[in-house]
Amino acid sequence: MLATVASATLVGVEGQAVSVEVHVANGLPGLRVVGLPDASCREARDRVRAALMSSGFKWPQKRVTVNLAPSGLRKAGSGLDLAIALGTLIADGQAPWQPAARLSFIAELGLDGSLRPVTGTLPLAAAVATAEVVVAPASAHEATLVGRVGVRTAPDLRTLIGILEGRDRWPQPPPRGSYPPGPPPPDLAEVKGQVLGRQALEVAAAGGHHLLLVGPAGAGKTMLALRLPGLLPPLQPEEALEVARVHSAAGLQVGISGLSPRPPFRAPHHSASAVALVGGGGARLRPGEISCAHRGVLFLDELAEFPGAVLDNLRQPLEEGRIVVCRATATVSFPARFMLVGAMNACRCGADGSPGSCSCPEVSRARYTARVSGPLLDRFDLRVRVRRPEVEDLLGAGGPAEATNEPTHVVAARVAMARDMARARAVRANADLETSALERHATLGPAAKRILERRLTDGRLSARGLGRIRRVALTIADLAGDEVPLGEEHVLLALALRATGVLGREDQVPAAATFGKSGEGLAQVPA
Ligand SMILES: [Zn+2]
User: Fold this and answer.
1) Cα-to-centroid distance, 365 and ligand 1 (Å)
2) pTM for the complete prediction?
């Protein structure tokens, strides 16, 4: 007899509906799974057999063939266990077919027959073709985030069959925990001094600009970066759902207290593997850290310590907002639109890199900073030097910086205002403005034009740099509540916040040496 049960499998961060067809016929007893299952999927054989028997069902002494359709799609993970078990029971006449036909089933089976949660429940539940889905009780909150799909749970296979036969009722899904959404991000008021650093942080948050902080060890670069998430506006519901899908596919905990509106902040260590950062892995390609930072902040501390190959991998996401991972088994595109914040010392020894600040030879200092390539350095709209705070800043002795120690909520209000203005220009933040839109939205006043002309003529500014300066200057004007055309003060501050020579070398990139030259398969960089 033949039975068909609906389920889903994960491809990247997207779910795909799968039909599990089970055929039970006379022949040599055994179970065969066909239709491109991966290793964990093939292991379902052993789990399903044990789960069935320990739940008090008979294992059919016949030939059982399981086909996972569509057969061209590679199936990964253990989420098809329940559908395979149920299909076997229906095809063998041990469970009713009718009630199961209206449902999809997504759960791993324990050897004792219990339903267990699987990675990617959110995108999986979103992909099912039926109006209701059955998941493990521990996955219920996550599946509920989908919204349009009814969520049912059962603790184990035996109870589930009882419900389908009409002997039992669906148990109430576990109540949503009232877990607090974690401690709030640290407050900006705790940062003493750091006038330029604070300013850069505010502009970065308001305009979505990538930020590089360079300075000696202990100057407070990390302290500044950790305060960025608190300045960012909360995610829109559809963005929060997008983030939750990626996190679900990456195996992170999702949905315990509903959709989190907080932008993610990911700070992978420089010793993390390329796969952990970029994504990929075995048969099932998982999103990496850069995708987990989607719609939030990717903070790379000790930027120069990251392997060059890993930093090269940032090019595509910085241009396109996604990363394509190719493996022998599949090619998958993961979303990866993040704000990049880098922090680094100007010298390996941790000194601030200015002449005479340490005794390292010039050549070793240059070699260290050269690990951040010119094109990558060029991606940072904001590059600032952070110095160790002055003694009076630390002691709060009413120094000149005292008045600027604004708390997070004050700065965040200005950032929200600037983001509103960007939305009126049909982008999320000014960093997303196309070059063509700059003419319309970031017009230059005569004084601003003169300053930029001079920089362009003497070669201190490239055509691409000009676009970046205009976007940053527009953000600065937005924060100050000023109207365009952009004035001298906006452009001068933008130039100061994008210091050239921040790494003690000429960091202008010749126009030809852009990211994504044709042949690299990347998008052309807008000027
Ligand atoms: Zn040194």
Assistant:
1) 6
2) 0.87
